[in-house]
Amino acid sequence: MRDALLGALAIVMLGTSLGLLQEQLVGPRLELMQPYRAPVDQRVGLVDVSTAFALFQSGKGVFVDAREPERYAEGHVPGAVNLQPDGELAMLPYGGTLVIYCDGAECGASARLADHLAQQRTGKIVIMPAGWPGWQAAGYPVMDGSRE
Predict the structure, then answer these.
(1) From residue 9, how far is each of 4, 18, 24, 33, 38 by CA, in Å?
(2) Residues 65, 103, 45, 38: is their CA dihedral positive or negative?
């Protein structure tokens, strides 16, 4: 039994060593654990936080927070509408660019909502991948439940 365990351990160590050697000779390893990115309609664009802020300042952007209502209540872009991917789209105003955000690049809610909106209505739709964390980090205006 002990010889079988030592043999199995030797095989594991050999495999690990060969894997590390291959990485050194071939290059960087393949990232197997990538965050899931929901497929998005080709009509949906991406904007960085500064471009989103310019839309905010000009009044040409309609901000849509795709996070859960509890997270929205903790803080959001002033004037943002809270809408989940399966939410009622009739509450969204027409006109202006829809700027959809959630909890940053790892969050897929904004992509799911943008895709859903692109299939249901016309108009310009963009995602702000940096999301709420990026907006806050840039020091742009915020609204929380205590000030509404």
Answers:
(1) 9, 14, 23, 26, 40
(2) negative
